[in-house]
Amino acid sequence: MLPAGGKATAPPPVRPSSLLWPVLVVAVAALCVRLGFWQISRLHEKQALNTGLRSELAGRPIPLDEISAPVDSLRGRKLEMRGRFDERRQILLAGRAHDGAPGVDVVTPLLLGNGTHAVLVDRGWLYAPDAATARPRDYPEPGEREVTGLADPLRRGAGGPSLRAMSGDSVQLLSARWLDLDSLAPRFPYALAPVVLRELPGHGVPEKPLRRPPRPLDEFMHVSYAIQWFTFAAILLGGSAAVARSRRRGAGPAVPGRID
């Protein structure tokens, strides 16, 4: 049937605003999917790191004098060295918590060979109410011994963290938030290796400071986040499709014009 006037009614023009919403929904859903796959890639990275950590902890340590690789390649490697601690010069890493208790990590140089070179060793955690000061001399080391731990390259930067010098009991204590080779090297009368060794607990290792084995990285977090992002994408696409169908049903069929 023809509308009044005998001319066919042209379909209503498509408004640009009606296309904006579906394009926006698809774009946001695609972003959510991309973020979901990014979380999966982060999961695989952490799984690889945790596998490497378990392998290092279970494997035999590498004597330090056998390593000639670049410093960055030492990260996370299990090293072993023999020396004596220079307990006259120690570093307290402030703001280190353990099981909710405030404290510090005690870092002491381990003198190697004839004493012209040293490696900084993180000997572990001590309780400190202010999370900044402690008395590491209360926990002396038993002379020369072997030290086994995981290596971590020292930071290097312009000035590094602020250092606070504290003296007591003929011990030079330096308090800092992290270790920076450029800041620390001028304060020691021997050369420092560009790595810090985080000592592992084991036979013959004193109970205090508390040596803490490294914790595996959280993998489940990335699984949870990936599921969330994929769920958001499904809700956006499914919900938008349902709304579009509902609107089409509510509009109903067009009523043609009548000829009197």
UniProtKB/TrEMBL annotation:
Main location: membrane
Ranges where the record places region Disordered: 136-155
GO cellular component: plasma membrane
Stored InterPro entries: Surf1/Shy1, Surf1/Surf4
Transmembrane listed as a keyword: yes
Alphabetical list of Pfam families matching this protein: SURF1
Keyword Cytoplasm: no
Localization: Cell membrane; Membrane
Membrane topology label: Multi-pass membrane protein
Stated name of the protein: SURF1-like protein
Organism name: Eiseniibacteriota bacterium
